[in-house]
Amino acid sequence: MLTKKQTQVLDFIKVYMAKHSYAPSLDEIKKKFKLASVSTAHYYISKLQDAGFLNKEHNQPRAVSTVEAKQTVEIPILGAIAAGQPIEAIEIPDETITITRDEIGKQGKHYALRVQGSSMIDEGIFDGDIVVIRKQEVAENGQTVVAVIDDNQATLKKLYRENGKFRLQPANPTLFPIYRDEVEVRGVVVKIIRNLESQLDQGQSRDEKYVRKIDYSWDYRGEKTKSHTHGIHTYPAMFIPQVGRRLLETYSKEGDTICDIFCGSGSALVESRLIGRNAYGIDLNPLAIFLAKAKTTPINPQKLTKEYLALLDRVEKIKDKEIQRPNFKNIDFWFKDKVIIKLAKLKKAIREIKDETIQNFLMVAFSETVRYSSNTKTGEFKLVRVKGDKLEKHDPDVIGIFRKHAEKNIAGMTDFYKDAKKDVWTKIIYGDSSKDNGIKANFIDCIITSPPYGDSRTTVAYGQFSRLSAQWIDVFDDPNDASGVDNDLLGGRATKNLIHTLSSGYLKESLEKITKQDETRAKDVLSFNLGLNECLKQAHRILKPKKYFCLVVGNRLVKQVRIPTDFIIAELAEKIGFTCEDIIVRNIPGKRMPIKNSPTNIVGALEETMNKESIVVLRKN
Ligand SMILES: C[S@@+](CC[C@H](N)C(=O)[O-])C[C@H]1O[C@@H](n2cnc3c(N)ncnc32)[C@H](O)[C@@H]1O
User: Fold this and answer.
1) pTM of the full predicted structure?
2) Rounded distance, CA 294 to CA 368, Å?
3) Of all residues in the chain, what percent are helix, strand and coil, respectively (each to 5)?
4) Please, are residues 275 and 421 in contact by the beta-carbon 8 Å criterion?
5) Is 374 a catalytic residue?
6) How many Å apart are CA 73 and CA 102, to the nearest integer?
7) From 426, 436, 462, 527, mutation site for ligand 1 pocket: most ligand atoms within 8 A of C-beta
8) Distance CA 112, CA 156 (A)
């Protein structure tokens, strides 16, 4: 399937290649179609490659070539269809889409409709999309159909036959089904075409200094995010690997040295390793450093499995008197005695492994075991203890939990070991990104990162999330130091007053609004932005001129004030010596972060934090 714009891009590439014998660069495609960014050009190329119209070659700037055209069909767009309340079909004259035969099968007649409404979003059908329909008058239970009811009202729904009636089911949990005795089926959906072109051109507010572009192609809804070593340990607000990879592929090339200045558990570093980029990662949370190292160090899976099996044998034989109970504050509040003994045995058996990388890798599964067997509520990033009956009954199978995680992790490492590029390196630095961490000036080819969303107290408490694990796996000299991590992270300490010299009108406006309601919260916000500004300066120092710095950020609400962190970053960065080339907005379908928080500290008084994020693309001048 090709949309109109994709066909135009393909035609341009063909004509260009006929003239020059090589393909146009992404920048030339961007200029030709007045696209807002090279990432949009990259998006069209990927679509043409996925559809088989362009060859997939090495990830080089001009490395596309056309392939022999596949058999295509032109399908008329007959009108609009309601994915909501039924509407009368609206005719759209003379519009067609081109699509390859392979995509819709050989049989049947087809037509296309433009979707209006949001009742089918859980099926991946959005407002503005085009659906290709195979004409037929009958459908099977559960198929998505064009249904005509009530005297020529058409709607797009899933069809079910129930007790002699028809149920037209929306794929949106907020909407009710429609029941009818009679339904006329006019066809079933065989293909959904996401209407990115118009969405890419939308979402811009005219009087703003910067432009946000909604681009659903960055959502990666429903895609697997736990491949390779990505899934070996939970961490708050992890990168979706696909986002990391796409940024890396768009803004860097094979052999480059990239850096993630807030690397967290190391998702961007894993992707760098898989696609042949050397990588630096920096983080100030010791657990993050531990995880990032384990995720990016390839280990021979055979050796790993051998050590793992030997470990299971050993752990059974360890006697209670042989173990050393860890000694940190409140250990008995967070763990039952029985659990402490089992965890201590497991830890002893892991520590006996001689190969340090294998020991650390299995410690990752141990760290997850610590969290799952503790008295904390699962699914929370903050430490909240279960209560009453639940606590009483809490009797975790410590070894069982460990086995489950260790075996899943070994499977992930097997893939990583196979796919990781051998001739690149990853270096992980425990440090504060607002300071000089020893990376040389003008050394880095590309920075990809996602900073924290704000201070740890009211958004994601990285330190708190990591505390119990960190205390058990000895990432601190003194395990009691673990509680101090959040204070040291960006925005961890409120400023004394609200006087500052940051040059951002958007920040000034937000601070004024928040101050009116709560001065302390305004100081938290200022502290975060002061720290972030220092990080931007360091990023500018280490990046080579003309190279890219991409930040995935959230615009959070504080006291009902939406803080435009993306615009603030753009303003601050432009003062430092960057140009803001793009701000892309994506939905967050699966990221582990609080969508709601309770800023008032009143139970039930939830305030939405965010379900969208912006990708700010900066370029060093
Ligand atoms: C959004 S998370 C990054 C998650 C990461 N992309 C991943 O996939 O796991 C932000 C990270 O910034 C780190 N951080 C906060 N302040 C920092 C600072 N001043 N210097 C370095 N890292 C910091 C936190 O510890 C946290 O791991």
Assistant:
1) 0.70
2) 13
3) 40, 20, 40
4) yes
5) no
6) 10
7) 462
8) 12
How many CA atoms within 13 Å lie on the side-chain side of 346? 27
Residue 155's H or E segment, with its range, is strand 153-162
pLDDT digits (tens, 9 = 90+) for 23-62: 788 888 888 888 877 788 888 888 888 777 777 664 444 5
Indicate the residue type of 310.
A
Q: Give residues (CB < 6 A) around ligand 1.
A: 235, 237-239, 262, 264-265, 267, 282-285, 288, 432-434, 450-452, 462, 489-490, 531
pLDDT tens figures, 134-165: 989 889 988 999 888 876 778 888 999 988 88
pLDDT number for residue 312:
96
Which residue type, as a one-letter code, is found at position 228?
H
* Per-residue pLDDT tens over the stretch 72-85: 777 888 777 766 55
What is the SS3 assignment for 576?
helix
Q: Give the range among 355-364, 388-397, 475-484, 567-576 with minimum mean pLDDT.
A: 475-484
Q: Helix 565-576 vs helix 505-517: angle between axes, to the nearest 10 degrees?
A: 140
Spatial CB neighbours of 607, under 8 Å, sequence gap ≥ 6: 557, 560, 596, 597, 598, 599, 600
The two tokens of residue 487 are: 């204070």
Average pLDDT, the chain: 85
Q: Determine the 3-state secondary structure of 617 from DSSP.
A: strand
DSSP structure class, residue 236: T
- 210-246 pLDDT, tens digit each: 888 878 788 887 788 999 999 999 888 899 999 999 9
Of 488, 549, 559, 555, nearest in space to 522 by CA:
559
Instruction: Tell which atom from ligand 1 comes closest to the C-alpha of 235.
Output: 9
Task: Please check whether residue 89 is in contact with residue 154, taking contact to mean a CB–CB distance below 8 angstroms.
Answer: yes
Q: Count other Cβ atoms within 10 Å, centred on residue 142.
A: 10
Nearest-CA residue for ligand 1 atom 12 is 262
Distance 317 CA to ligand 1 centre (A): 40
**C-alpha of residue 264 to centroid of ligand 1, in Å:** 5
Our answer to whether residue 56 is catalytic in this structure is no
**For residue 559, what pLDDT is reported?**
80
The vertex-535 CA angle with 579 and 244, nearest 5°, equals 70
